[in-house]
Amino acid sequence: MEHMSQCSEFSMIASTLELGDNVSTIPAMNRTMVLLTRVDLRTLTIQAQQGALKILCASLPRLPGHVNDVRCVVAFISLLTSPYTDVVCACANALLSLSPFLLGFACAMAKAYRNFLAQTPPLHINNVITVLDRLRQLGSTIKADPDVDNVSICVLRALSIRDHVLQQKILDLALDILNPRNVENIVQLVCNEMDMAVTTIEYRAMLQKAIDGCYMKYLMG
């Protein structure tokens, strides 16, 4: 019953934001902030989650200061890790449309998403691939951010997931955000991963290729 009322409230807020009235936008966004502290969006119905995403997409460009609000980051990441594939895909696509308008948004999402990758129960692999692909599309935006060094380290720590498809996606993303400042840290982390006893022949070959790619890209850059 509570979820139904929240779904209705999200719908009302979304309607308010669609009016384009900046006077009503601020209180509507403030009300959203209150709602986001009360519930894990992943537990809501698909309709409520879609409503919440619509609100975030409509309000964040108008009030860009909220991108650094931990509640917004948690809310967006919750939707990226939704059990509903439609919500994940819509949210992943929203990353592309929002990032050009919100300084630091892509970096914040990349760092926060890594923390959810190893959760139990595990995220659906196809949904994870979708999100990682979108983050790769934002590689140049992430690379230009002053916090890119921390992001690259966070991304590589997700290699703890023992799935070769995801590990390759993670390595590809790390190479996309490679720069002269972080290349040594990235190579060191990948070398440390190679030294672990649990690595398979296939995984070691993948890691070696990534190391070679780091050196080639660094020398060419």
From TrEMBL:
Signal peptide: none annotated. GO terms for cellular component: cytoplasm. One of its GO terms (biological process) is intracellular protein transport. This is Clathrin/coatomer adaptor adaptin-like N-terminal domain-containing protein. It comes from Brachypodium distachyon (Purple false brome).
